TrEMBL record:
Family to which this protein belongs: Belongs to the WhiB family.
Protein's organism: Aciditerrimonas ferrireducens
Annotated compartments: Cytoplasm
Annotated binding of [4Fe-4S] cluster, by residue: C21, C44, C47, C53
HAMAP family per record: WhiB (MF_01479)
UniProt keyword list: 4Fe-4S, Cytoplasm, Disulfide bond, DNA-binding, Iron, Iron-sulfur, Metal-binding, Transcription, Transcription regulation
4Fe-4S Wbl-type domain location: 20-77
PROSITE patterns in UniProt: 4FE4S_WBL
Protein name, UniProt field: Transcriptional regulator WhiB
Essential cofactor(s): [4Fe-4S] cluster
Functional description taken from the UniProt entry: Acts as a transcriptional regulator. Probably redox-responsive. The apo- but not holo-form probably binds DNA.
Major location (coarse): cytoplasm
UniProt PTM: Upon Fe-S cluster removal intramolecular disulfide bonds are formed. The Fe-S cluster can be nitrosylated by nitric oxide (NO).
Length: 94
């Protein structure tokens, strides 16, 4: 990885330092299958960088854990909705 890529990557993740989850046990955000996600989502609920966190997870294909207040299943659903919306917009323009 070159220096420019490293610096850009660092800037792209600067939001992480303002996240509510800083200092919280990371295991909370990666619960066992079937375990409650309620506590992790509560931490995310009032977070000022929730949107950045969610977009990071979507852009990087995070398959596990709670990101931006959404579980893996919820992120998959959101991805599908976005794809369908983009397809519909494209169909309208064509």
């Amino acid at each position: 990885m070159d220096v420019v890529t490293l610096l850009i990557d660092r800037q792209d993740r600067a939001w992480q330092h303002r996240a509510n989850c800083m200092g919280v046990d990371p295991d909370l955000f990666f619960p066992e299958r079937g375990a409650s996600t309620r506590e992790a989502k509560a931490v995310c609920r009032g977070c000022v960088v929730r949107e950045e966190c969610l977009e990071y997870a979507l852009a990087n294909g995070e398959k596990f854990g709670i990101w931006g207040g959404l579980s893996e299943r919820e992120r998959r659903r959101l991805r599908r909705q976005r794809v369908l919306s983009a397809q519909q917009r494209t169909a309208l323009v064509s």
